[in-house]
TrEMBL record:
This is Pseudouridine synthase RsuA/RluA-like domain-containing protein. It comes from Neurospora tetrasperma (strain FGSC 2508 / ATCC MYA-4615 / P0657). Gene3D superfamilies: Pseudouridine synthase (3.30.2350.10). CDD domains: PseudoU_synth_ScRIB2 (cd02557). InterPro entries: PsdUridine_synth_cat_dom_sf, PsdUridine_synth_RluA-like_CS, PsdUridine_synth_RluC/D, PsdUridine_synth_RsuA/RluA, RluA_PseudoU_synthase.
């Protein structure tokens, strides 16, 4: 029996970026007509009201995170429980319809609708957008228009698409500490913090919400890249979030990371104070450059593990390593690897990764900064003046990376891999979605879910509190070798910072 759900109007607000209203479904069956207008409630309201939207659904069901994907799962805009299921060690999301909404930007005024999509939204071919406009998947102010429609100030453009989120690791998000104001978690590698890009429900914020209930709103207080694992702070209230963010921004909080790098890292404390320049904002690509922003990181080797010689005749072979680890070891073949403690004094984007690369010891499985096809044989070591590789050369090489190098580079940048997958996905899996006929992605490999950089410790400089996570598996001694399984205090690293400042 079909169900008719009327979504009440929300107070409209000015929106400067795409926001969403999802309708869950699978690739088996879909019965829905979508006409939605959902905008941000926290800004100045526009001149025109936001009408009530009506959504027709049939056979609506819900699912639990551990259940198999249902034949049909269609719910209103905030589905509960979240549409997760676990398969092959990955947390997956049932595909769903998703409506993006945005107000007409100033630069769009007086331009045709199709021109905007062709110029600014090139992740899909122009034919897709033309068909979406003609079939009503793209509407303006809730009404169907033609491709030649000219946009004006106050127009609301809505685009409904069938969304396929990439899977992430099913490793649980473990709680290190919790009190009335704060949750301290150990974030798994490969899971983004916020909904962004291709990820929505498969994000730390949404996963925690699914575990705590629909009324819970976690507020992240520190930044971790998608591939980086380790300590994250989630405040339970806006006041608690503002207090901790202010403390971190005033540098009264010390941070320590652990990294696995190529080769034998030098003895003692190593201070790198090379400035860092963002050479491609679009790719968030950075490098050491003399005209960059001031940056300082203190490093200290925790352990060094030499390369393992291949077994001679009659010896027992070593257990097979995962593909990602084999690829990483090939990068440092003959050098072994080091586990290095990292104390970032400043907070530039990719600072630890860039400084380690400059020192000649990049993170062993870093898909960008340990990639010889992008940086050359020496991987940018001591190249502060770009004498060996110009910025344009680096960006051009990275942009040309193809599927055969996905374990090295493409997988890391969401925008690049999204565009790449949209072009090549049919070759990847050979299957199309039953609902939208979009080529389906293959599952991510280990390299797309992991970076050997871990946020190990946060502590108050005055000693009021300290949180430490366990060492990740890749930082522990390999089979047949001995080495440290935990890390001591930060006094020696802090002393090196103080000494370098005098």
């Amino acid at each position: 029996m079909g169900a008719r759900i009327r979504l009440g109007a929300r107070r409209a607000g000015y929106c400067t970026s795409w926001v969403t209203l999802p309708l869950l479904c699978t690739t088996q069956k879909m019965a829905a007509t979508v006409a939605t207008r959902l905008v941000n409630d926290n800004e100045t309201p526009p001149l025109t009201p936001n009408p009530t939207s009506v959504v027709e659904v049939s056979d609506a069901v819900t699912m639990s995170p551990a259940a198999e994907p249902p034949a049909v799962a269609i719910t209103p805009s905030d589905p509960w429980p979240r549409p997760y299921y676990v398969e092959d060690g990955l947390r997956r999301v049932v595909p769903y319809h998703y409506t993006y909404n945005t107000w007409c930007k100033e630069r769009w005024r007086g331009r045709k609708l199709m021109e905007i999509f062709e110029v600014e939204f090139r992740d899909r071919p122009a034919e897709y957008y033309r068909n979406a406009v003609e079939t009503g998947l793209v509407v303006v102010n809730g009404k169907a228009v033609g491709p030649e429609h000219v946009l004006k100030n106050g127009d609301l453009i809505s685009h409904t698409t069938h969304r396929h989120e990439p899977p992430v690791t099913a490793e649980p998000i473990r709680v290190i500490h919790e009190d009335n104001d704060l949750i301290v978690i150990n974030k798994p590698s490969g899971v983004p913090v916020h909904p962004a890009g291709r990820y929505n429900y498969n994000s730390v914020v949404e996963i925690i919400k699914s575990e705590r209930g629909p009324g819970f709103l976690p507020r992240p207080c520190n930044r971790l890249d998608r591939l980086t694992s380790g300590i994250m702070f989630l405040a339970k209230s806006q006041h608690a979030a503002e207090r901790l963010v202010a403390q971190i921004s005033q540098r009264s909080v010390r941070k320590e990371y652990i990294a696995r790098v190529v080769g034998r890292f030098p003895d003692g404390e190593v201070v790198c104070d090379q400035p860092i320049l963002q050479i491609s904002p679009k790719l968030t690509l950075n490098r050491v450059r003399a005209n960059g922003k001031a940056a300082r990181t203190v490093f200290k080797r925790l352990a060094y593990y030499p390369p393992v010689d291949p077994p001679t005749k009659g010896q027992t072979e070593q257990p097979a390593m995962p593909d990602a680890e084999q690829a990483a070891q090939r990068r440092g073949e003959g050098e072994g690897y080091s586990i290095v403690r990292c104390l970032p004094v400043t907070g530039r984007t990719h600072q630890i990764r860039v400084h380690l690369q400059f020192l000649g010891h990049p993170i062993q499985n870093d898909p960008i900064y340990a990639n010889q096809k992008v940086w050359g044989f020496d991987l940018g070591r001591n190249d502060a003046d770009a004498a060996r590789n110009s910025d344009e050369d680096i960006i051009s090489r990275l942009s040309r990376m193809g599927k055969e190098d996905i374990a090295d580079a493409v997988a890391y940048y969401d925008e690049m891999v999204d565009n790449y997958h949209r072009k090549k996905a049919e070759k990847m899996s050979g299957q199309l979605c039953d609902v939208c006929r979009t080529p389906l992605y293959t599952d991510p490999g280990e390299q797309e879910l992991s970076l050997w950089l871990h946020s190990l410790r946060y502590e108050d400089a005055d000693g009021a509190w300290s949180y430490v996570s366990p060492l990740p598996a890749w930082a522990l001694p390999p089979s047949g070798m001995t080495g440290p399984t935990e890390v001591g205090g930060m006094d020696d690293l802090v002393s090196a910072v103080d000494a370098s400042s005098t």
